[in-house]
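Re: zinc ion structure - here you go.
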Amino acid sequence: MLLIRNAHELMEAFRPLDLRLFELPDEATYPLLVRDYRAWLETGGARIYLVYEDPDTHKPRGLIFRRPNARGAGGVSHMCNWCHSYGGPDEIGLLLAEESARRRVGVVVCRDLGCRERVEEAGDLAGRDTAEAKRRVVERMARFANEALGLDTAHAG
Ligand SMILES: [Zn+2]
C-alpha cells in the first residue's frame, strides 16, 4: 500500500511524456491512498489515469490512457487482459498509452479500470480470497508498462 502525499509526489510517478497531458486531481484527494492501484477519469472522460504500486520497486508508477469511443464496436464481448473478466464493448475495450510522442500502444482492458472491483465481485460469488488475483492484476499492469511502453528503460537513466 502506498501513500502519495501531494501533487509533486504524484507527478513524479508519471513519465515526462505523460505530464504534458496531466490534469491534477483535486487538492482534497491528498493524501492519495493506493491499494494495489488507483484509477480515475479526467474531466470529460477522454483519458483515464492509472497509478499502481510497482511489484519490483514498490514505488508508485503512473500511466495515462486515451479512451477511444466505445460506440461502433458492435455487440461482441471482450476479455480484459488484466483481470480476465468479460463484458460488452462499453465495459471492456481498447485503451491507448503513448509509447513515444509518435507511437501509441493499445491494451484491451476494463474501460473504467475497475479490474479490482470485478475481481472482488467474482471472488465473493465464488467464496474465494481475492488477494492473489488482485496481485496478478497489478503484475499484468506492470508488465504492460515495462514491455509495451519500455518503462524499465525509461526509468533506468
Ligand atoms: Zn479488468
